[in-house]
Amino acid sequence: MNLEKLIKEQGATVVDVRTVGEFQGGNVTGSINIPLNEVPHRMDELKGLKAPLILCCASGGRSGQAAQYLQQQNIDCYNGGSWIDVNYAQSQTV
To answer: Which of 43, 53, 79, 80 could in theory staple to 67 by disulfide, Cβ–Cβ 3.0 to 4.6 A?
Structure first.
């Protein structure tokens, strides 16, 4: 998985699964905040986003859980790991 390629060539949507407070403290430009505990309840919204989805959080743990769950629901997504890494990858596509 190449984050830069997913963002630039496929127009991936970045979904940050951290808490609202964490998200407000810094986030990837243009990302959407759907906290991990809300993922199962916001499936319609997630299915409506432009795929693939790149999931991120603080370190990759929560985004890994979200990616596993969403992949079981047949949603095209990837664990991008830390939001800082995803933010850097996105900055390289400009």
So the answer is: 79
What tens digit of pLDDT does each residue of 51-94 get?
999 999 999 999 999 999 999 999 999 999 999 999 999 998 76
Q: Which CATH number belongs to the domain containing residue 84 in this structure?
A: 3.40.250.10
Q: What is the total residue count of the chain? A: 94
d(CA 79, CA 73): 15
Give residue 20's domain range.
3-91
- How many structural domains is the chain composed of? 1
Helix or strand holding residue 90 (H, E): helix 83-91
User: Does residue 1 register a pLDDT over 80?
Assistant: no
pLDDT of residue 10: 85
